[in-house]
């Protein structure tokens, strides 16, 4: 594999976690393997591998774009990544208000619903009674 692919796999694993990368990349089948390799090299290596923006900033941008594009499964994945990249629940809240203003209330409703669920799941996993 290329150096950019290896960088992409490393970043993808750091941001999404080993299990998520394994599910998407290592367990890819003959039909989607080439696509997963492309995503790893192009999105994660060539995109996330750049250094002018922090991972935190990229996470916030992704959440806005995924909301606008109505991609709830990818949005949910990237909420967890944003938290891992240092985005706070308060920052998520402000970002999602921006989403609602600029992308429409339905996009905001969906984004808040998904983010609330992720925050509650993470709080339960951490042994807390409930999310924020």
Q: What is the CA-based Rg, rounded?
A: 15 Å
Give the helix/strand class: mainly alpha
CATH architect. name of the largest domain = Up-down Bundle
Largest sheet: none
CATH H level of the largest domain: which superfamily? AhpD-like
Q: Low-confidence stretches at least 5 residues in length (pLDDT < 50)?
A: none
The N- and C-terminal alpha carbons lie at a distance of: 42 Å
Mean pLDDT across every amino acid position: 94
SSE pattern? HHHHHHH
What fraction strand?
Answer: under 5%
CATH C-level of the largest domain: Mainly Alpha
How many strands in all?
Answer: 0
Question: Could you walk me through the main structural features you see in this protein, from its secondary elements to its overall organization?
Answer:
With 132 residues, the chain is mainly α. The chain folds into two domains: 1-52, no CATH class; 53-132, AhpD-like (Up-down Bundle), CATH 1.20.1290.10. It has seven helices and no strands. The chain has helices at residues 3-16, 18-26, 33-47, 55-68, 72-84, 89-103, 105-125. Helix 1 (3-16) crosses helix 2 (18-26), helix 1 (3-16) crosses helix 3 and helix 4 packs parallel to helix 6. The longest helix is centred in the C-terminal third of the chain and has 21 residues, at 105-125. It is globular. The mean pLDDT is 94.
């Amino acid at each position: 594999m290329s150096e950019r692919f290896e960088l992409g796999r490393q970043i993808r694993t750091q941001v999404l976690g080993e299990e998520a990368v394994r599910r998407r990349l290592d367990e890819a089948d003959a039909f989607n393997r080439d696509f997963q390799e492309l995503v790893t090299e192009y999105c994660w290596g060539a995109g996330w591998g750049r250094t002018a923006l922090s991972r935190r900033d990229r996470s916030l941008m992704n959440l806005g774009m995924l909301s606008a594009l109505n991609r709830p499964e990818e949005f949910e994945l990237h909420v967890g990544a944003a938290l891992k990249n240092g985005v706070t629940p308060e920052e998520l809240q402000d970002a999602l208000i921006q989403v609602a203003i600029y992308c429409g209330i339905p996009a905001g409703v969906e984004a808040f619903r998904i983010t609330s669920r992720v925050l509650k799941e993470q709080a339960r996993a951490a042994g807390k009674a409930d999310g924020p």
